[in-house]
């Protein structure tokens, strides 16, 4: 039996787009990665242990759980834990190469970094998702303890185990990824709409053959949506 291509296509596209979320900007022409902001760049006095932190990126959002004392637990693709258990090496800031190889091999780690390393210069939203899970919010201490228990190497999947799954499990007790679900629904909708246009073209062609409609008036009407579909 043939596999449904929609989930596979969505997964492949998500993998490519997710790289844009995590990959840090490079210094133009230097080949070296930019440095994160210096300690104290963010005011952490308003953060409470167990808070859910969001850092909006261009296409997606990166998530973490605040543990207190300027520490954030977050899930990141990383291939290094596959080759070594040396915590000192693993704890070094994840480079782009490590991250990309982690996405490709579907390996990751739940790591604890400073707020500066976690946010990498982005703006931070605090408990922004609580409004969607207002009846499921766990106590802050329980959320932090859940995050701490998961620290270490883990499998990585854009659809089933990404940074959003990690934080929603810790703070709401259910591992979900709303942005992944929304993206997959959008992909399905686009594919469904394209199939509808193609079906209308085939029906129009069949009507010409079976009913003898005038090609001079019917063909342009039929092929306008077809050409729009191909261009899209």
Please, could you describe this protein's structure?
It is built from eight helices and six strands. By secondary structure, the protein is an alpha+beta fold. A hairpin with a 4-residue loop joins strand 1 and strand 2 (61-68). The longest helix is centred in the last third of the chain and has 34 residues, at 178-211.
Summarize the structure.
Helices cover 47% and strands 15% of the residues. The chain is of the alpha+beta class. It has a six-stranded antiparallel β-sheet.
Please give the count of helices. Answer: 8
**CATH fold-level topology of the largest domain:** endopeptidase fold (from Nostoc punctiforme)
Helix-strand topology string: HEEEHHEHEHEHHH
Terminal CA distance: 30 Å
Largest sheet: 6 strands, antiparallel
Helical/strand content category = alpha+beta
CATH architecture of the largest domain: Alpha-Beta Complex
- The domain count comes to 2
Which CATH C-level class of the largest domain is it? Answer: Alpha Beta
Mean pLDDT comes to: 78
Compute the CA-based radius of gyration: 23 Å
Instruction: Record the strand order, biggest sheet.
Output: 5-1-2-3-4-6
Per DSSP E runs of 2 or more residues, the count of β-strands stands at: 6
The H-level CATH homologous superfamily of the largest domain, spelled out, is endopeptidase domain like (from Nostoc punctiforme)
The residue ranges in which pLDDT falls below 50 over 5 or more consecutive positions are 26-31, 211-219, 222-232
Query: How much helix, percentage-wise, in residues?
Result: 40-55%
């Amino acid at each position: 039996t043939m596999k449904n291509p929609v989930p596979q296509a969505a997964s492949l596209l998500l993998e490519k787009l997710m790289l844009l979320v995590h990959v840090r900007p490079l210094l133009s022409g230097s080949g070296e990665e930019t440095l994160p902001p210096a300690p104290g760049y963010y005011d952490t006095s308003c953060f409470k242990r167990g808070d859910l932190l969001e850092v909006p990126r261009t296409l997606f959002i990166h998530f973490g759980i605040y543990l207190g004392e300027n520490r954030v637990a977050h899930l990141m693709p990383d291939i290094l834990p596959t080759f070594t258990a040396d915590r000192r090496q693993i704890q070094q800031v994840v480079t782009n190469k490590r991250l990309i190889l982690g996405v490709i091999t579907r390996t990751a780690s739940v790591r604890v970094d400073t707020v500066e390393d976690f946010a990498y210069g982005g703006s931070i939203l605090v408990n922004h998702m609580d409004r969607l899970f207002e009846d499921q919010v766990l106590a802050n201490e329980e959320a932090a303890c859940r995050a701490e228990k998961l620290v270490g190497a883990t499998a990585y999947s854009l659809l089933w185990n990404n940074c959003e799954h990690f934080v929603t499990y810790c703070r709401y007790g259910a591992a979900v990824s709303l942005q992944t679900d929304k993206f997959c629904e959008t992909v399905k909708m686009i594919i469904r709409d394209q199939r509808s246009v193609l079906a209308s073209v085939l029906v129009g062609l069949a009507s010409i053959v079976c009913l003898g409609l005038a090609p001079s008036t019917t063909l342009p009407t039929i092929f306008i949506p077809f050409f729009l579909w191909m261009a899209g």
